[in-house]
Amino acid sequence: MHSVPPEFQLNNDGLTLLWSSQQAVTYPWFWLRDHGEDQDSLDAATLQRKVDTFAVPHDIKANAVQWHGEILQLQWSDGSTSHISLQRLKQIAGLAPESEALPDADRRYYWLADNLPDPYPSFAYTELIASEMAVWQWLSAIVRYGFAVVTDVPSSEAATQTLAERIAPAQQTIFGIYWPLSAELKDHGDTAYSTQFLAPHTDGTYYHDAAGLQMFNCLEFDGKGGESVVVDGFAIAEHMRLKTPDLYQILTEISVPGHYLEPGVHLYAERPVFRLDRHGQLAQISFNNYDRAPFLLAAERMQAFYKAYAEFNRHAINQANWLKIPLRPGMALIFDNWRCLHGRMGYVGKRFFYGCYHGHADFESRLRVLAQTHAGAALGAVMSGYR
Ligand SMILES: [Fe+2]
To answer: Which of 84, 105, 274, 330 could make an SS bond with 252 (beta carbons 3.0 to 4.6 A apart)?
Structure first.
């Protein structure tokens, strides 16, 4: 599709493109030189920068500028030339979706008590193993809802790995790459390895790169209770942004440390409960009161933090906001640990899960690559339990 290149004006500060009568965007000269897309400025295959940013004169300006179709050509005051595409100029100004954006991120379905996904997104194991399209729809559903269930999964460690590797290699943590989870295991002192109720939380607040996805395959269940609980943390954040913006703001600002200790291990990391991206959009929820490490702020700020933190918790522990999923052999649950909180009801009996994590960057990478081929396909074609 062809776009008509906008008119422009050369200013002291940079080049102004008149996208419409309402919208003019100025691109600083130095920025334009630094973002050349010609073969001397950028490697076309890897998109790695070739221009030596630090050798560009700080006061560089263009002497001449012209459109060649959808390419803007620039002649520079230091004698060099470069070009940049209309598409890049549009994307960077927010006038076209960035190619780096997470596919379907603008179609996220935020859910709380009054709009829980019912039935929840669910996919058949055999489809996911057989079809790339099915994997695309599966991951796309995880972007939209924050989680999905997989049915008919063989109750084995090998099948768990086979399923996980349809996304990417799993992420290694102190728990290993693939890990068994059961109260009968005493390998780790963590509360997850018990039968008690676990309040909704995110995992890995003590890792700089907290797990992106988390997956549990239920290998065995013979008991009562133990339902998995999923809560949409992004929906809580959005609710707070609208209803209690001052409290929302505090949770975007104050870094909260998390730690994990066991013999030979001392992990520690910190970030705000609501981490925003450079556009001010929510990127990650980090909330684990069990693993919170001590920190102290000035009295007034500390009090403000506790108030905001308690407000978040009030929504997180509100059972009306919970999706309770009783996992049984054959079922695997996968969720975005940067968006959804998870918990577990207390139980009696035997419950044995096998699980793993994926790095968020690896999950996103798989999505972007799948989107190149499959984006636009109707969601639902292979979903077995979705309305
Ligand atoms: Fe957990």
So the answer is: 274
